[in-house]
Amino acid sequence: xxxxxxxxxxxxxxxxxxxxxxxxxxxxxxxxxxxxxxxxxxxxxxxxxxxxxxxxxxxxxxxxxxxxxxxxxxxxxxxxxxxxxxxxxxxxxxxxxxxxxxxxxxxxxxxxxxxxxxxxxxxxxxxxxxxxxxxxxxxxxxxxxxxxxxxxxxxxxxxxxxxxxxxxxxxxxxxxxxxxxxxx
Length: 184
Prior knowledge:
Number of strands: 0
Helix content: over 70%
Radius of gyration: 20 Å
Shape: globular
Number of domains: 2
CATH architecture of the largest domain: Orthogonal Bundle
Order of helices and strands: HHHHHHHHH
Largest sheet: none
CATH topology of the largest domain: Rna Polymerase Sigma Factor, Chain: A
Number of helices: 9
Oligomer: single chain
Strand content: under 5%
CATH superfamily of the largest domain: RNA polymerase sigma factor, region 2, helix turn helix motif
């Protein structure tokens, strides 16, 4: 890689960090594990930067490295037992400050209940803004498979969150009532 190419690589690598961090945390469901996954991804990318093809999407390349690293750790983690007594988990809970926060907590819990392949496809397309084609390249599968995974993930999220129609979105009934009274 030329010095100019390395400078471009470094700039693009740094610019992609917020995106890969958000994806990693969403994929893991744990900010600390997500940050560790980002660090591992960046280390691998930097170590193997000569394999990056200039002119291609560094973001897609990083997401692929991150995804592969996550699944390697996930397979290894299935053999490990952590927090058997639930003590660490009990320290993570905090009281909600507002209903919106609780809605987000419910969403994260529902998201974590999705199958890993569905969650990954939904996050790539819905949260990161990748096209179905780009997501298929990152996941290493067909475009139709990604579309199917996203569709099943959306349906399952709606089921888990109890969403039946469009009226389920927006303020809750007490908030709607207060808004109506305020407008009178």
